[in-house]
Amino acid sequence: MHWKIVVSLAVAFLAYLMIGGAVFQALERSNETEAKTVYMDVNKDFLKNFSCVSEEDLKRLVTYVIGAYKHGVVFLAVQEEEGEDEDVSVSNWDYYSSLFFSVTVITTIGYGHLSPGTFAGQLFCILYALVGIPLTGVFLAGVGDKLARGFHFLNDKSFLSQYDGRCAKVVKGSVIAFFCIWIFFLLPAFMFKFYEGWTFFEGVYYSFITLSTIGFGDYVAGYGSITGLAFSPGYKLLLVTWIIFGLAFLSLVINLLADIMRSRVVDRVQDHVDRGRKAQRHLQEKTKRTEVKQEDYNLVATTCIIEG
User: Looking at the DSSP assignment, which residues form a beta bridge with residue 80?
Assistant: First the structure.
């Protein structure tokens, strides 16, 4: 790749980053300021209404609650029967939750809602990821290849196979894209709305953030749900299956878009470089012809002077 292409891509990349930073700042800064104001007011009202609690004690309690949540102590469901409280919060490290965490490690999703706290767990996580990440990449590439073959098979066997041309290709691609979007984004969004209590858009947002391996951790399926159904082993196994096939599909789409963008950008820059080189060669040839003519002129002038 020519250095001019690399420089052009670097400029475009930095410009895209700067635009993203400006847009996110404009969209989220005011919401952050409002949230801070609300939290400070709640803190002041709590200390005012419960004067026996000091500000330091409140901070210490909040710190303990956050630490407890990271260690799996989630008070989402408390049964009160006959004056007795029974903690029915589930463990973050039961087998199915640990299996879900393993998926987030080797797929590089990394929600950040859960992490190993022991030295042995952290060491195993490093070794597990070193082997699991490349293994996952190879496996997802194979799954993506099979999905692509399946799409071609459906295309050949469907009613669209009788149409040819660019318009037909667009129609075929649109049908396949709509089918996959429904399977990997819209249908899971309805499921998350039922199991997690999220809105439909929040479900779509979570699906994309998960399958693109961005993994903010602001929404995590199966954790912090308002329904007890989201903690069932079958639900988490379904999530694992959806993540694996969804990752293969979305990685296939992203790689396709990257190839299209790379081909267009590289072709345009390469064409510009070729035109520049062609113009430079033309200028050099013209300069050489001018130098030759000047040498001939000097030779003729010198001969005339000698003969004269």
Answer: 85
The answer to whether 239 touches 98, Cβ cutoff 8 Å, is no
Instruction: Tell me the pLDDT tens digit for each residue of 123-163.
Output: 999 999 999 999 998 898 888 887 777 766 666 665 555 65
Question: Can you tell me the distance from the alpha carbon of 276 to that of 265, in angstroms, rounded to the nearest whole number?
Answer: 17
Looking up tokens 């075929």 gives: 172
User: Could you give the CA distance from residue 166 to residue 190 in angstroms, rounded to a whole number?
Assistant: 34
* Residue whose entry in the numeric block shows the structure tokens 């006959």: 82
Going by C-alpha positions, the residue among 79, 74, 87, 13 that lies closest to residue 220 is 74
Q: Which long-range contacts (CB under 8 A, 24 or more apart) does 128-135 make?
A: 128/102, 129/105, 132/102, 132/105, 132/106, 133/106, 133/108, 135/106
- In single-letter form, the type of residue at position 278 comes to K
Question: Which two structure tokens, joined as six digits, stand for 165?
Answer: 């041309």
Backbone angles phi, psi at 15, to 5 degrees: -65, -40
Strands (DSSP E) along the chain, which ranges?
78-81, 84-87
Q: pTM of this prediction?
A: 0.72
Give the pLDDT score at 80: 42
Q: What pairing do the DSSP bridges indicate for beta strands 84-87 and 78-81?
A: antiparallel
How far apart are alpha carbons 152 and 100 in whole angstroms? Answer: 32
* 45-74 pLDDT per residue, tens: 988 888 888 888 888 888 888 777 766 666
